[in-house]
Amino acid sequence: MQKNKIMKKITFITIIALTLGLFQACKSNKGKTTVVIDTVKKDSSTMATDIDTAFAKKAAAGGIAEVAFGKLALTKTDNAKIKSFANMMITDHGKANAELARIATAKHITLPTDLDTSYQVKMDSLTNLSGKDFNKAYVNAMIAGHQKTLALMQDEVNHGKNADFRGFAAQTLPIVQMHIDSINKINKSIK
Question: What percent of the chain shows pLDDT beyond 70?
Answer without folding.
Answer: 75
